[in-house]
Write a structure and sequence with these properties.
By secondary structure, this protein is of the alpha+beta class. It has a domain of about 80 residues. The chain binds zinc ion.
Length: about 120
Amino acid sequence: MDVVGSTNGDVGTGGKLPDWVLAPIPGAKKRTVRRHAAPYGVIEKVKLWPSKTGLLHGVRSVKLRGGFVELQTHCGHDIRMRNSRNSRVARHLRNKIYDEPCPRCRIPSWKLEKFESTSFV
Ligand SMILES: [Zn+2]
């Protein structure tokens, strides 16, 4: 009689999963692809702010306070908005959505050209 297999208890470690299988993988669910920058960083760099009315304003000063962007345009607007990458401003900056530059801000053309050639990834 040939013994073709053993069924009496000798399964080794096969029935038990090693600990690492069940351990959470660190950082696995935090993997975010940084596709959209928050508006503050962008505004601070390009010094431009697209308004709701389609005008692109020049930014005189900008600061970040408690998650809010506070900025002042050259034509005297004081703007306070959430520094959210999903905000309208973030989207408009990213996609360069504006109708025309604000005549009162007198944005130099090199700045507009630089903005046009900036790509947001
Ligand atoms: Zn303006």
